[in-house]
Amino acid sequence: MADENVSRLLEEQKRERMANLDLLRKLEKQLDAKQKLELQIEQLKGKSQVMEDIKKEIAEIKVELDAKVEEINYMQALNQDLITKERTCNDELQEARTELIMGLKETFGGHASIGIKRIGELDEKPFRKACKRKFPKYDAEVKAAMLCSDWQEKLKNPAWHPFKVIIHDGKEKFLDPFTVDHFKMRH
Q1: What distance in Å separates the CA atoms of residue 132 and residue 26, rounded to the nearest whole number?
Q2: For the segment 73-90, what is each residue's pLDDT rounded down to a tens digit?
Q3: What is the 3 state secondary structure string of the chain?
Q4: What is the spatial distance between Cα 144 and Cα 142, in angstroms, rounded to a whole number?
Q5: Cα–Cα distance measured from residue 30 to residue 20, given in angstroms and rounded to the nearest whole number
Q6: For a designed S-S bond to 131, which of 63, 87, 144, 164 qualifies (C-beta 3.0 to 4.6 A apart)?
Q7: What are the residue boundaries of the structural domains of the chain, listed by start?
Q8: Rg of the chain over all Cα atoms, to the nearest angstrom
């Protein structure tokens, strides 16, 4: 009986040990599963944090983008205004140029010996022609250049008034610079 009791006790201990081992394996599996879940939770938290950071960065980039779009729109509007003003000024300049040319043609009646090359620039040919008639050949070119330069300087001077107004017998008379200065050129 004692052997039987010992054998039963050993058998019981063996079953308890097996049950404990099964329980231990179950607990280890549960622990592994729990650790895997905790790891997944941490990874998801990390991903969630990254996503939130990305959302914040996207929001900041969107704000910057909106500011840049607004700035571009402003610059385009400003550029369009400047183009419009430039066209208007160019049109006004062309109109003034045309009126000036017409006015000069009317004033001199097409008989002037000084031609206009560009607005504000004189044509040297009439000066050379006049100087070749008056001066020796070697001096004519130099004199023509000097005279043209003098006239060019007069044209640049805003205080210079080419038409002198005199009152003769109660009437205004205009002396044009060509008769006055032409007289100077001949003497």
Answers
A1: 125
A2: 999 999 999 999 999 999
A3: CHHHHHHHHHHHHHHHHHHHHHHHHHHHHHHHHHHHHHHHHHHHHHHHHHHHHHHHHHHHHHHHHHHHHHHHHHHHHHHHHHHHHHHHHHHHHHHHHHHHHHHHHHHHCCCCCCCEEECCEECCHHHHHHHHHHCCHHHHHHHHHHHHHHHHHHHHCCCCCCCEEEEECCEEEEECHHHHHHHHHHC
A4: 5
A5: 15
A6: 144
A7: 113-186
A8: 52
> Which amino acid, one-letter code, is at 98?
T
Mind listing the pLDDT tens digit for each residue in 95-126? 988 888 787 777 665 555 555 455 667 788 88
- Model-wide pTM > 0.85: no
Judge whether 102 and 116 are in contact, CB under 8 Å.
Answer: no
Residue 178's closest CA among 159, 162, 154, 165? 162
Asked if 161 contacts 181 with a C-beta cutoff of 8 angstroms, the reply is no
**CB burial class (10 A; 0-12, 13-18, 19+) of residue 135?**
middle
- 131 vs 139: CA distance, rounded Å: 8
Give dist(CA 108, CA 100) in Å, integer: 12
Q: Largest alpha-carbon pair distance within the chain?
A: 171
Please state, in angstroms and rounded to a whole number, the distance separating the CA atoms of residues 175 and 162.
Answer: 8
Structure tokens at 162: 């080419």
